[in-house]
Amino acid sequence: MRESSLAPTIDLDANGERHGFLKLPYSRDDSAWGAVMIPLSVIKNGSGPTVLLTGGNHGDEYEGPIALAKLASSLKASDVSGRVIVVPYMNYPAFEAGSRTSPIDKGNLNRSFPGRPDGAVTEKIADFFQRYLLPSSDFVLDIHSGGRTLEFLPFAAIHVLRDQNQQARCEQAMYAFAAPYSMKMLELDAVGMFDTAVEEAGKVFVSTELGGGGSSTARSVAIADRGIRGFLANAGVVEHTETSLGVEDSTTLLDMPDGSCYVTSELNGLLEQCIDLGALVRQGDVIARIHDIGRTGTPAVECLAKRDGLLAARHFPGLVKRGDTVAVVADIVVGDISPRR
Ligand code: ZN
After folding, report:
1. CATH assignment of the domain containing 150
2. pTM of the shown model
3. Contact 293/274 with Cβ under 8 angstroms?
4. Within a 13 Å sphere around the CA of 276, how many CA atoms are in the beta-carbon half?
5. Which domain holds residue 145?
6. 69: CA distance to ligand 1 center in Å?
7. What is the Cα–Cα distance from 301 to 295, expressed in whole angstroms?
8. DSSP annotation of 232
9. Ligand 1 mean position to 301 CA, how many Å?
């Protein structure tokens, strides 16, 4: 297969702290010989596992970029055994635009794997991660949030995998992240996801959903900060340090066993939230109402829970469209377990 046109501007294998870019040539009207410059840092000390930490896979999710930018500027090689590769803004054009997908090619990076070396910009980014960064990584943490259109309870997540040994190692890493909730996640469509690429490469993989609405909170950033340290300690590349940062030290294990977790809007309208995140619901409960904005005097349409459980995610903007996910109801598997004990 053709070589990638992306190239790091720093040596990824040298000891020490290095800060540079993944340079992707991108010729356009305002810069004939221009390039997309994706910032990255590599902190390496001797031999040991490689941990790849990514944020900004979607450009409107902020806990990952904030926590990873802080880590990149503070982590010293003397604190590390092995190598930490930090890419806070993975789909940089999307991140710069504050949008989920890239303004260059409308590419959703997390639906673009394995990518193509001769494809559009977003496919080229995916290809570089797939063929150059993934093979040399042992542990991968990809930090997501809800972005501008979703809001989540803060959770770290894994998928159910065929290889039970790999899944057990992923679970251990998820508990080391120690978010207030931990999720066995069911994807609506796993094709093209970074998650799938990492898992199929046999690596230890954890993803997160830490908040949403296209911003962050002091609490959601603290969860990310602590989670990253726990993830690195579990990989064996940094010493374990107790950092509570005011975040509770227990987690509740959730599960999304099938499609009945999803409540989907069947019409456009004004969304009235009737249940807040973290609340318990019963099958048949009214989770939300959708009001007709075309006229007055018509009754609202009710969105009902299709199963018992806990409201783990919901639509964020005040208006909703047909086909939008209104809410996600998850099963509680185990409440309040202490993952670090
Ligand atoms: Zn995302």
Report:
1. 3.40.630.10
2. 0.95
3. no
4. 0
5. 7-255
6. 17
7. 14
8. H
9. 29
